[in-house]
Specification:
The protein is an alpha+beta fold. The chain is 36% helix and 18% strand. The chain has 13 helices and 14 strands. The chain starts with 7 loop residues before the first helix and ends in a 25-residue tail after the last strand. The C terminus is likely disordered.
Length: 495
């Protein structure tokens, strides 16, 4: 039966299919139990909904019930056991005492039960939606803020050629996929969406995040009344960085009564320093600081009118923010914008403590033929435009820095004029090249379907014209195959 299997009667009955209910939990006095401190966090996990699951989550009759399986996974998370495989190196009997059983399941048993729980596609997403709706309803503030940002997950395998993404923490362009997360102001997560082929933050907001929030974000009777009475009132505020800058998106969300808060991507000249006034700003963590803030109205290219708020630092740098939230004050909006660092800290914490970037399974799956990807021809032309533009800028700098020496002899003047003329000729030649490349880029389709990729392109499989991508899941404590966007229950301070 294995090590630490002291409850032989229940195990024999379970082996022959005669155990009607899972083995009952029986706790006994014990000393020096390894990892016993994790029990102190069990109430927090239960409060977050660890065992409050849909009726569809069921397991066949056996020794370990579904509650025991979820408790094992929760305790593994608290003890920083990052994968089911690592459970082989834990004391099975010691961990069994924490569950009220003789031992925890073997790795093979736990994998089988997790696979059964994850076999039905979309079931984990349903549970995620149920829990997220409860978490959103617990937000203290009447004005809801949701933070959306992407996290690049690097792929180091050799089974497929993924598109390259710039990884800021590595300062390199590496093959990776992108996860888009929706978090609360304090960094607590609600949802993540995995994009093997990244369409960008703007498209992800339109197609995935906003529809999800429209279904689950709470809307009280007071909010509905305020929306009906005030045409400038908003339902909730969506916060993101410059990658989501899109005047068309801002206008579309405004029509849905969703406010945005982001950085100004194209700030104009600095404002006079005497327009800034000191304000006391309460940060997300409760700390109060003093910021120099100023506000103006601004109009975007699509004639949309927004609030532009700027923060002045001691060094004279101005950080510009845009928002369609017309109710909140400047200090509140400034604190909400800079609370994005809570989400960045969440990414770092999860990466270091929970193996956020782990590859769960050594397998691949096919990309649908109609998935839109960047046209390789367009990317090549865009790269050439950037290269030629950089060369032109360097020549302009040399042209502007060239000055006539103090030697005003005829030979020196002629040499100066000749070099100036050569540089000007090179600049004019590059102007023609850049303009020609821009015209070709403009006439080239930016995005094409995967099935239309050329044969020589690496993002292609010769057997079925669809690239095989790695199977990812942000947390293999629940599923080795789940692709539906599940996020496990949270424990304050332990997630």
């Amino acid at each position: 039966m294995g090590y630490a299997t002291t409850r032989t009667l229940e195990r024999v009955l379970a082996a022959v299919g005669k155990l009607g209910t899972p083995a009952p939990l029986e706790f006994e006095p014990a000393c020096d139990v390894a990892g016993g401190g994790v029990l102190a966090a069990i109430p927090a996990l239960l409060a977050q909904g660890l065992l409050r699951r849909p009726e569809s989550y069921q397991l066949p009759q056996g020794y370990y019930g579904i509650d025991s399986i979820f408790l094992v996974l929760g305790l593994m998370a608290l003890a920083r056991i990052r994968s089911i495989e690592q459970l082989r190196y834990q004391a099975s009997g010691e961990w069994g005492k924490l569950l009220g059983l003789d031992r925890i399941p073997e790795v093979r048993t736990l994998r089988e039960k997790v696979e059964l729980l994850s076999s039905e596609l979309g079931r984990a997403k349903q549970w995620n939606a149920q829990l997220a709706k409860e978490w959103m309803a617990r937000q203290d503030s009447a004005d809801l803020y949701f933070y959306c940002d992407g996290h690049v997950r690097v792929y180091h395998g050799e089974k497929t050629e993924l598109p390259r993404h710039y990884v800021a923490r590595e300062r390199l362009c590496l093959r990776a996929t992108v996860d888009y997360w929706v978090n609360a102001m304090d960094g607590q997560p609600f949802l993540y969406v995995n994009k093997e082929v990244d369409p960008g933050l703007v498209q992800t907001l339109k197609n995935d995040v906003v529809p999800w929030l429209e279904q689950l974000a709470p809307k009280t009777a007071e909010q509905q009344q305020r929306l009906a009475e005030d045409p400038r009132a908003h339902w909730f505020t969506l916060v993101f960085d410059r990658e989501g800058y899109s005047p068309e998106l801002f206008a579309e969300l405004l029509r849905k009564r969703i406010a945005i808060l982001t950085y100004q991507k194209f700030p104009k000249d600095d404002w006079p320093s005497d327009q800034f006034a000191a304000h006391h700003v309460e940060l997300a963590a409760g700390e109060t600081v003093t910021m120099k803030l100023a506000e103006r109205g601004t109009r975007l290219s699509n004639n949309l009118w927004l609030r532009e708020i700027r923060k002045l630092t001691d060094s004279g740098h101005q950080t510009a923010m845009l928002t369609t939230n017309f109710q909140a004050t400047m200090p509140v909006l400034a604190a909400s914008m800079f609370a994005r660092w809570c989400q960045e800290n969440f990414f770092r914490y999860m990466r270091e403590q929970y193996g956020l970037d782990r590859l769960v399974e050594y397998g691949t799956e096919l990309v649908p033929d109609m998935t839109s990807v960047v046209n390789p021809q367009w990317r090549q032309l865009d790269s050439q435009v950037r290269s030629k533009t950089g060369q032109r800028q360097r020549l302009h700098a040399r042209f502007g820095a060239m000055a006539l020496s103090e030697d005003l002899s005829e030979e020196a003047v002629q040499t100066y004029e000749r070099r100036k003329g050569e540089l000007q000729e090179q600049i004019q030649h590059l102007d023609v090249e850049v303009e020609g490349l821009k015209q070709r880029r403009k006439q080239t389709v930016h995005h094409i379907a995967v099935k239309d990729l050329p044969e020589q392109d690496p993002f292609h499989s010769s057997t079925n014209r669809a690239q095989a991508l790695p199977r990812y899941d942000q947390d293999d404590r629940l599923s080795r195959r789940n692709k539906s966007g599940f996020h496990p229950p949270r424990a304050p301070g332990a997630f």
